[in-house]
Amino acid sequence: MSELLAPILPGATLGVLGGGQLGQMFVHAAQAMGYRTAVLDADPTSPAGLVSHAHVRSGYEDPQGLAELAQLCAAVTTEFENVPAAALRTLALQLPVSPAGDAVAIAQDRAAEKAHFVRCGVPCAPYAEITTPAQLAAVGANLLPGILKTTRMGYDGKGQARVRTAAELAAAWDAMGRVDCVLEKMLPLVHECSVIVARGRDGAIVHLPVQRNLHRDGILAVTEVHAGNVPETQAAQAVAAAESVAHGLNYVGVLCVEFFVLDDGSLVVNEIAPRPHNSGHYSQNAMDVSQFELQVRCMTGLPLVQPRQHSAAVMLNLLGDLWFQDGMPRTPAWDQVLALPGTHLHLYGKTDAKPARKMGHLNITAATPEQARGVALQAAAILG
Ligand code: ADP
Ligand code: MG
Questions:
Q1: What CATH number has the domain spanning 13-97?
Q2: Known PANTHER family for this protein (predicted)?
């Protein structure tokens, strides 16, 4: 979209493709700023659809649904990484769409994503594409042990297999139905971190502080954000790398870039998400601008101002497992958790709790990282 466009001011309707929790938090941020909202999602009970002014109940590929959304909205964004890029391109013929279909298409494809990192001069894990038996046979021993990842549709550790030998690799590829994959060398991770950048249509860019992330079973469990959570050199490198990845895509919107810090101190990029990210949720309570407000500002052409962190933060993901004890359903003791200072509960309104399902998150803010961590430990003990 041209930078000559006037900003879209509050009062207008903003649309989002996808009705999950990221869409819900986008809707809340947009509404708080005085926008109306429209959500496109086929699920009548989608978290975002439930809180939006309008809810178009259609699939992403339904031309009528897309036309209805375009009719309602002044601009459209996405919350779901696997929304077909074609849907974004179709909408972009009629109204401003950010991020663009071309950028989302790259984030949807691990091979294209890695090729983009290489183009930007940002180091990533050594890898090989595996789309044919010949490519499988040609894999060098230098990539083993490794992680085989489906090129498309993987998330929360799904679509991945850890392999030690060529025989295990071949068996894992068979088990995945020989779909297109990349094999990545298994790296010695010391920390995982991520950076969220927001880039406007004029190319202006701001970023949130470097987030340190802890995963359990391939799913984000805890994010900690305070100065010094990642050594300063790596933090500065991560921000610079995230910015070059965004500039290289001519990206408009909120982009999360995930990194690994290795045992030799080097930093490698892991993957990108073309939307707000679970690791940025602390920004709702610990920053003066949240990642969702940044998404609103990007898509409307409002100014981007560098966000400021005013509190140390810990974010705990609340998975459906917490709704069960010894196999029996229960309600977590929210009253006890909320008695702790600096706790901010965010639940997405999903009615059916299932193990590993993201039901909400708890942001903890405090004056110091030690205090935030102390409260996080107490909250975790209560939630059991
Ligand atoms: P997803 O799309 O499921 O988030 P990722 O590629 O981020 O997939 O992988 C999930 C997790 O698996 C990472 O956060 C990290 O903990 C681990 N992992 C992924 N790739 C590697 C690697 N090359 N070496 C070591 N650990 C890895
Ligand atoms: Mg990941």
A1: 3.40.50.20
A2: PHOSPHORIBOSYLAMINOIMIDAZOLE CARBOXYLASE, PURINE BIOSYNTHESIS PROTEIN 6/7, PUR6/7
pTM: 0.95
The domain made up of 126-185 is a member of CATH 3.40.50.1820: no
pLDDT tens digits along 7-57: 999 999 999 999 999 999 999 999 999 999 999 999 999 999 999 999 999
Residue minimizing CA distance to atom 22 of ligand 1: 186
Model confidence over 330-379: pLDDT tens digits? 999 999 999 999 999 999 999 899 999 999 999 999 999 999 999 999 99
18 is in an annotated binding site: no
DSSP string, 146-169: EEEEESSS--TTTTEEEE-SHHHH
Asked whether residue 328 is marked as a ligand-binding residue, the answer is no
CA of 219 to the centre of ligand 1 (A): 9
User: Which ligand 1 atom sits closest to the C-alpha of 154?
Assistant: 2
**CB burial of residue 326 (10 Å; 0-12, 13-18, 19+):** exposed
